[in-house]
């Protein structure tokens, strides 16, 4: 990466690092001229090509003076044609010479014409289409990754075709049958599907391997600038996330975030270009790339953020000056999105500062104790499965009093709330107008409203010390479900309208989004909203939307959510029976579906004596239906605080399509919190 010193920066941004201009080389072998390197012009083949193992293309025949004069005459008399538009020149498709065969070209066309657009379904993706189209032409490593993703698209298409032939399902992404070292298609309706899926999947892995080797070679020879490195990061993250290797995607994401932070840290007057908002030098790295990694940072913080709390302290104030100068009203969807992203990052860094491990409580207490229930929670259980930091209880019991009495923290929280209110006011006009516009603008506007609701929930719950406090957030939960329902309707209508305009040939849909939008928000409602109709509606939406946003998988999230609902409703039934000492038949909706092994005594992680750890085989829980008439027969109207689930989390394997589920819940018989575990396969 070029060094960005202060002498090269203006007050507003860094000036361009321009290469020294030379006259165009008109001699040399064909290969060296294409590579734009100096050729030694040795005959019959140049020594430079021989040295680097490249095939020398030879030398074009010299033109006579007569032919040169003739060309000049033709140029003087040529007919002018319309000038190509700026954006269009980057969308030229590579010629057949860039491919080793027709199959590679087909894979690339699948990526560039379909997948590259589908992975950004919620907002305009013109900038991405331009950047990735140009990069694929200029960089073999990026092109091979694009081809690999296109091959994955064909693999998924065949998996869905085989599933449709057997079950009639259309959109479910059958990962188990197409990914991993052992591709299993024994249950498909035809052996032909197995052969085809294996072939396409093998091509995807082979091209991905070629891409990695090309990229390593570029790094070794110093041929990779920061812009290229960031694009490479994005396509690798895309491939790994689609393929189900979320750990590989997370590692690449952290690499990209480090590069962006290093790039922006060298800019003069950095406060005008906070991370993820704008590029200090857009001629070197476009705003789109900086903003994309800013959004991926939000995604990282929503699931697993390996950075220490000191990093969050350093970044939580970034962007205050820019937000303070936010125009009102905002002029476009993109502008509204960038400012909301900036507020959201500040909120999540603020949460990262107060979300620290809980201290182990001493002893236990009965349900009638006046001490906060939070103090009864054991700790150190499965510490590597972090709860979701934007909604989970963040304040440790040992620090609850000092945190709540901290004027500094309260002031920071109020400042962030004020920024969110200011954004809501500034964006209201443009969002209302967009919702009344075309399908894509309406989807974008509703997505921003969901993001704003999620950010508000995260901030308002920052100092919650019990689960009942989430009941105050019901208005936000209800709006999330309302907006998500509208988005699904718009997407279905848009797909219906576009169906006739698509080619008759198959068009793979990966059901994958590069950015977060709906799944985390709906998951939050399922886990934290105890208003039954709203909760079940959110669960139904997740199930009707088999999709993945980054590493957030809707099927896995709905599985964990259904498990939590089952535990809480069964716990509420037992709690009310114990409280009223009434022996009556169980009205639980799970009575016919629950499959739980006998509790086994295992050592608890708390300092209290061993307590039961409930191990549940989960697949039966997933059979909860949002339209089950038995829901309305429950004879209790709420979920008591004592039986509400805490620290719900999972360790998932997207390749094997399995998840291990974990949570804490009070055992009514012992009045102690115990860890409960389950397994879920899909």
Automatic annotation (TrEMBL):
Keyword Ligase: no
Organism annotation: Golovinomyces cichoracearum
Family annotation (PROSITE patterns): ZN2_CY6_FUNGAL_1 (PS00463), ZN2_CY6_FUNGAL_2 (PS50048)
Name the UniProt record assigns to this protein: Putative zn2 cys6 dna-binding protein
Region (Disordered): 592-614
GO molecular function: DNA binding; DNA-binding transcription factor activity, RNA polymerase II-specific; zinc ion binding
Pfam families documented for this protein: Zn_clus (PF00172)
Highest rank taxon of the organism: Eukaryota
Gene3D superfamilies named among the record's database cross-references: Zn(2)-C6 fungal-type DNA-binding domain
Biased composition range(s): Low complexity: 592-613
Every Zn(2)-C6 fungal-type domain range: 28-56
Taxonomic lineage of the native organism: Eukaryota, Fungi, Dikarya, Ascomycota, Pezizomycotina
CDD domains: GAL4
Keyword set, alphabetical order: DNA-binding, Metal-binding, Nucleus, Transcription, Transcription regulation, Zinc
């Amino acid at each position: 990466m070029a060094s960005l010193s202060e002498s090269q920066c203006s007050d507003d941004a860094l000036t361009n690092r321009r290469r020294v201009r030379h006259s165009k080389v008109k001699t040399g072998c064909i290969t060296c001229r294409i590579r734009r390197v100096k050729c030694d012009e040795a005959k019959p083949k140049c020594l430079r090509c021989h040295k680097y193992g490249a095939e020398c293309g030879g030398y074009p025949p010299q033109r006579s003076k007569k032919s040169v004069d003739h060309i000049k005459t033709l140029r003087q008399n040529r007919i002018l044609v319309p000038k190509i538009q700026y954006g269009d020149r980057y969308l030229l498709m590579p010629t057949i010479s860039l491919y080793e065969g027709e199959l590679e070209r087909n894979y690339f066309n699948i990526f560039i014409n379909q997948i590259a657009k589908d992975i950004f379904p919620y907002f305009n993706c013109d900038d991405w289409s331009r950047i990735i189209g140009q990069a694929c032409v200029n960089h073999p490593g990026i092109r091979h990754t694009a081809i690999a993703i296109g091959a994955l698209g064909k693999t998924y298409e065949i998996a869905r075709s085989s599933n449709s032939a057997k079950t009639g399902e259309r959109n479910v992404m059958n990962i188990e049958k197409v990914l991993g070292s052992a591709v299993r298609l024994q249950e498909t309706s035809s052996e032909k599907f197995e052969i085809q899926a294996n072939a396409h999947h093998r091509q995807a892995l082979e091209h991905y391997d070629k891409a990695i080797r090309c990229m390593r070679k570029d790094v070794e020879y110093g041929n990779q600038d920061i812009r290229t490195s960031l694009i490479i990061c994005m396509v690798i993250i895309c491939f790994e996330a689609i393929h189900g290797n979320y750990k590989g995607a997370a590692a690449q994401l952290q690499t990209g975030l480090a590069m962006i932070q290093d790039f922006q840290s060298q800019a003069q007057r950095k406060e005008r270009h906070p991370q993820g908002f704008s590029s200090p030098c857009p001629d070197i790295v476009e705003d789109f790339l900086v903003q994309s990694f800013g959004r991926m940072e939000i995604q990282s913080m929503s699931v697993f953020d390996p950075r220490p709390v000191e990093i969050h302290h350093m970044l939580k104030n970034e962007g205050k000056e820019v937000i303070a100068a936010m125009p009102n009203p905002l002029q476009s969807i993109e502008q509204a999105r960038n400012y909301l992203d900036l507020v959201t990052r500040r909120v999540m860094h603020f949460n990262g500062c107060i979300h620290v491990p809980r201290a182990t409580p001493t002893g236990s207490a009965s349900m009638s104790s006046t001490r906060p229930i939070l103090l009864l929670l054991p700790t150190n259980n499965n510490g590597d499965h972090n709860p979701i930091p934007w909604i989970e209880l963040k304040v440790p019991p040992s620090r609850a009093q000092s945190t709540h009495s901290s004027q500094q923290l309260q002031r920071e929280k109020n400042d962030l709330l004020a920024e969110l209110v200011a954004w809501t006011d500034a964006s209201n006009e443009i969002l209302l107008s967009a919702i009344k516009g075309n399908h894509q603008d309406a989807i974008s506007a509703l997505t921003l409203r969901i993001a704003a609701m999620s950010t508000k929930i995260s901030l308002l719950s920052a100092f919650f010390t019990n689960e009942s406090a989430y009941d105050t957030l019901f208005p936000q939960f209800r709006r999330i479900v309302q907006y998500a329902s509208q988005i699904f309707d718009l997407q279905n209508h848009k797909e219906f309208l576009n169906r006739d305009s698509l080619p008759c040939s198959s068009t793979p849909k990966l059901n994958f989004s590069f950015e977060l939008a709906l799944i985390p928000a709906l998951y939050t409602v399922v886990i934290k909203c105890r208003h039954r109709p709203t909760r079940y509606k959110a669960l139904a939406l997740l199930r009707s939307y088999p999709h993945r946003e980054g590493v957030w998988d809707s099927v896995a999230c709905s599985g964990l959510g259904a498990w939590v609902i089952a535990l809480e409703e069964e716990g509420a039934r037992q709690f009310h029976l114990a409280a009223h000492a009434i022996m009556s038949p169980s009205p639980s909706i799970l009575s016919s579906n629950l499959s739980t092994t006998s509790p086994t005594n295992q050592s608890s992680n708390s300092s209290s004596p061993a307590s039961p750890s409930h191990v549940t085989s989960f697949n039966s829980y997933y059979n909860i239906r949002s339209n089950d008439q038995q829901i309305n027969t429950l004879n209790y109207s709420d979920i008591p605080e004592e039986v509400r689930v805490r620290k719900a989390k999972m360790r998932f394997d997207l390749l094997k399509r399995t998840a291990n589920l974990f949570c804490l819940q009070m055992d009514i018989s012992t009045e102690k919190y115990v860890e409960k575990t389950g397994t879920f396969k899909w």
